[in-house]
Amino acid sequence: MSGKCELPQIDIAGMELPGMRRAVKGEAVLGQMLKRAASPGYRDWEALASSVGWCACPVQLTSTDVDGQASAAYSRCNNRRAAVCPSCSRLYGGDVFQLVHAGLFGGRHGIPETVASHPRVFATLTAPSFGKVHTTRMDGQCHHHAYAGRRRCEHKRPVWCDGRHGKTDPELGKPLCLHCYDHTGHALFSWCLPELWCRFAIRLRRLLARRLRDIGERPGTVKVTFVKIAEAQRRGLPHLHAVIRLDAAAKPGEPPSPPTTRLSALDLAELVKHAAADVSVTANDGTEKGRAVRFGEQTDAQHIEPDSPDSDGTTSRKVAGYLAKYVTKSTADFGISPVRIAPASIEHLEVSEHVNRILHALVSLSVLPGNEGMCDWLHTLGYRGHVATKSRGYSTTMTKLREQRAIWHTSQHNDDNTAPEEKAWAVRRIGHATIGDRVLALTKAAQQRENHQAARAALDSREDQGEL
């Protein structure tokens, strides 16, 4: 069998690659791709690259046995950010879907099906407004003059926008007036959000205990469990999506069981709203009293309906899909590298003036007591929390999901069911040898995603038609 292959049709000129800031030189990359495709070892490289799902930045490993025989293997980079590695990002999103789905439906990963009957709420905790930004409302309008009037701010900028912004419009999220926008408050909210969530969770548990006492039930018999995802809004602010569930109190390690309570999902939703409105964090903004950081007024909590053909509201499957999508986003959409950046490099970043001012606000605030370390989080626009977190007992864990996948992967490549040979591996390289190899891997990964989406669409269509 020939070791050569036919190159896929790729538009090289001006190509932007995940994890790379600048466009690559098309001619040089094309030469690298041709060299790889024509090489005798192409099939070996293809087998290694495909074994990790065409990862964009694989860890290349090497091993030598006692006979001096060398072996090579690839390991995934496991980066959750789609802007860095589309393949690993898709896998991470799938794991999050499984984790959230198991906590909503049960029946898999050691979670009982009874969790579907627990009171459950889908909560969205947003940031307050720090100034008007370009947006897209339900009617497709931004800030139409019919509603906003034809007023101008103190800086002579219009406070209306009659435009209609598409989903990819770069103006989305930018302030109507940069001078009116409160970039200091913006930076402080991002910085304080992890602590604000912690206080929210504590307050919610206390409100739940009080409510249980009010209806004559023991507070210690019901507990709150959750899974939370942080998503970056177009204006550069994180907001939180969470599935919050009531379980019966249990010992660590025991599966969740239905709570014995008269409280419903609607009652839980009200408690969530009250807890979000009650909590605040005092941040150091350089003033004597500091600034109270709170959640915004658009905080929402909806009870999750059972999945059924007639459901058109917030269902378990929709929620799991939402959270899996949010978790793969990153600040790369704002022109910022996913790795840490130094304050001195801010002026060299190809970012909007809005993002530039957020970064400068973080640097200015970092010299104040209580704000130490802000400059370590410039690459996340000040957000220092985890993107995905869950309470103990909500569902399975990411570690267990990866272990199950590793066991399955080993079984697929081990026909005689014997234990795989253990070897000592050493890291040879991180990433592909050339940008051409990277382009080939990214193209193959994109083809796999398209094939999977087409197959999934065909399967859904057959289910809708009752063929399955």
How would you describe this protein?
It is built from 10 helices and 10 strands. It has 468 residues and is of the alpha+beta class. Strand 1 and strand 2 form a beta hairpin. It is globular.
Short description:
The chain has 468 residues and is an alpha+beta fold.
List its traits:
10 helices, alpha+beta, single chain, Replication initiation protein, 3-stranded antiparallel β-sheet, 3 domains
Number of domains: 3
Strand runs, count: 10
Mean pLDDT: 87
One letter per element, helices H and strands E, the order comes to HHEEHEHHEEHEEEHHEHEH
Shape descriptor: globular
Q: Rounded to an integer, what's the Rg over CA atoms?
A: 25 Å
Instruction: Note the main sheet.
Output: 5 strands, antiparallel
Assign a percent range to the helix content: 25-40%
Uncertain runs? none
Total DSSP helices:
10
Placed side by side, the strands forming the largest sheet appear as 8-3-5-4-9
C-alpha termini separation = 39 Å
By helix and strand content, what is the structural category?
A: alpha+beta
**Amount of beta strand:** 5-15%
